[in-house]
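Lab notebook, bench 4. We co-purified these components, and the gel suggests they stay together. Before we commit to crystallization screens, I want a quick structural picture of the whole thing.
Request: model the full complex, all chains together.
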Amino acid sequence: MATTTAAKTRTEILISGFGGQGVIRMGQILGLCAIKQGHRVTMLKSHGTETRGGYVRAQLVISPEYVDSPVVEHADVFVAFSAPAYKKFYDCCSGRILYDPELVETIRADAPERHVAVPATALAKARFNNVLFANMIMLGALTRLAGLDYEAMKRAMLEVIPRFHEQNLAAMDVGYDLPVPV
Amino acid sequence: MATITRARVAEGLVAPWVEWERRCPKGRRLLEAGTYALTEGAIAAGCRVFAGYPITPATDIAEYMSKRLPQVGGYYMQCEDELAGMHACAGASLGGLKAMTATSGPGYTLMHDAYGWALTNEIPLVVVDAMRVGPISGITGAPGQGEFYVARYCTHGGNFETIVLSPSSVQEAFWLTIDAFNLSERFRTPVTILTDQVVSDMWEDLFLPDADEHLDFVVPRKHNLMMPFYPLGGADLDVPPNIIGRGTGVCVSAYTHTEEGYDIEEMEAQWAQTYRLVNKIRHHRDQLSRYETIGLEDADVVAVAYGADARTVKTAVLEARRQGLRAGFVRPITLWPFLDELYERDCHYVVCELNYDGQLVREVMRAAPDRAKVHFMGKSAELHTVAEVVAGLQGVARAGRIPELPYIWTEVR
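Here is the predicted assembly.
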């Protein structure tokens, strides 16, 4: 999962959804994990003025070298946590799309092989009786799909999130252990 | 000057922190925001007072400062507005402490009166303006570059030069803040850090030198022990600032003043004061060059941008070169005094900035050999994309003009 732009190897990740879902937290953990492994990272975060409910987007670029453009124009991975986000940023993605089927009910028919359904919200409700753990389930699934270092990701999560470590670790396991198409 | 080669293109960054980075081998690598880097840079530079009023996207600086300053024996003061905030900073600096305030465009305009006081009385301090799109309140969470000229003419009345620096990354924001404090001490003047919503809000890997590491490149606060208070009619650098209760004493006035700081209404005194305020900067321009360039030795078309926008523009230049175009890149870090010498090459220029009216482009038109070959790509509220800038560079290289693109303005009159 890498594109070559201007003779550089960079990985672009786009995460978007509603405010309050933990989109930025998820990006922060991914970014810190990459930094701990010696990479350079940029993360643009944009959001509406509302704390909850408005749109939120995190654009991450990870590279072994200094990242010039921090803008995601060709995402290698796109995590869609809402139908409006899926619709708005679909064209910015040239790689895999992880979507939550409870929030993104209809997907485009043109590229089914690029889509991976991760029922993060439903699993968070069923397993933890709390939708707030959906982002950690998604993070576990993304770690597996992208072939990232799972132990390093867990350490980054523990560093970023101050509380509820056991539940968050369990939620990451739920996502990581999901059957993912290769 | 450090020159590295990547993708077979000569790249050059001219800034004091190229050397500083080498002198700080030990530290921590973090994922932090530009506002955090601006705060930590100020603390590392010896800033011990922050007074201001919170505003998006500079609010986090106030918040970080309120936490950090008490830890290092400093003072955080939330004021009733920006005008009071900057006056309080000027007062703190006159009292002997390094001070900073931070705001966005709507607050920056309110500071003009205080800026004038600090400027004419030669009070060192640092002002951060995290630009958002305007005019006035505009969109709080969207980047703009509308204060290019406002930062130059940051108070009324004329008869002064200003120092304005602009970082393009979180890491650079850290080093550049130390640099801004150093320059404010050496030149005895307020320095503006003109940043934008993207640099201040974005998170990026940040190297913070260990706190116990002695940063010997920080210019310490000194006290003026010599009469006269104001070396009028001279252009000397490194005259220590006047501090209340130390050395000679101090006399602060908004009026044209004598060397002892008293009000005076004589043309000769006005001449002497202006000579000092203008020429202490103009005569030491060599101390103020900070910029980044790529491929100026063979470029047919040079893209010009500063701040966060320069990030995508730089990627576009590298991409255009990969496609066979002889493209170059200029990123002024020092915005004022304007670095005319960066535009000596007789070639096409494509100036990208985050406003539709065209500001930086007018200075490039003035400085470049052929005004007709200076092109404008204005955009607002969002960074240029790599694809847009590549299209602009190709259009100019092949047809001598920027192609029509949605949300891009090319007209400057």
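Strands of chain A lie at 3-5, 8-18, 40-47, 55-63, 75-80, 93-99, 115-117. Worth comparing against the SEC data before the next meeting. The longest strand of chain A covers residues 8-18.
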